[in-house]
Amino acid sequence: MAKSTNKEFTTSRYLATFALATLFFIIGILIGNAITSNKLQNIKSTEENLKLEMSDFNMQAELAEFYPCNNYMLYSLGERLDELGAKIVMLENQLGKSNEFVIELKKPYSLIQIQHYLLIKKRIEKCNENYFIILFFYSNKPEYIRESEKQGYVLTYLADKYGYNRVKVYSIDEELDMGVVKALKEIYGIKTFPSTLLNEKLYVGFHDLEELEKDF
Known about the structure:
- By secondary structure, the chain is α+β, with helices and mostly antiparallel strands.
- The chain folds into two domains: 1-129; 131-216, Glutaredoxin.
- It is built from six helices and four strands.
- The protein has helices at 2-64, 71-95, 100-127, 145-162, 179-188, 209-213, and strands at residues 132-138, 167-173, 195-198, 201-204.
- Strands 2-1-3-4 form a four-stranded mixed β-sheet, sandwiched between helices.
- The longest helix is centred in the first third of the chain and has 63 residues, at 2-64.
């Protein structure tokens, strides 16, 4: 009788342990799903906010075309552009360079970068001002990514060193399936990455700070 009772107790203990472990496993899955759902919701919210900011930027840029020499327009749009770029880089770091959300956000962001680039070119022409305009074509393909990232660090340092009132850097992901990106690559003969266009002078491949500063 005692043996039977002990056996029943042992079986019950195993069942209880198994049930408890199963419960913890289910709770873990539920918590994980909740976190994932919340993360996706945050990403979606960020995406919507960025799209709204880009639309606002686009309207300001259209207004700026009528006032190309207005400093407020230039610097206000430049600050917004930098802020948008920082947010997209943050998302890229969180989700990965090949993430669908990131790529779709890069497309309208690239359009407003190019729009601002054209505004600056018009300002130089109409307002008798000079800037160092850098159009940076990079690639996240395995064979190009290391050199592209190195060049990006150099250009960031260059922009910080001379300030926004002298240097404008526009970074274009060459892999984006966009007509305007393809057109720019065709116009400037961009075939290798990274490629850096500094005031219409093309630097193919990686170039260090000392090489680029020779043209300043």
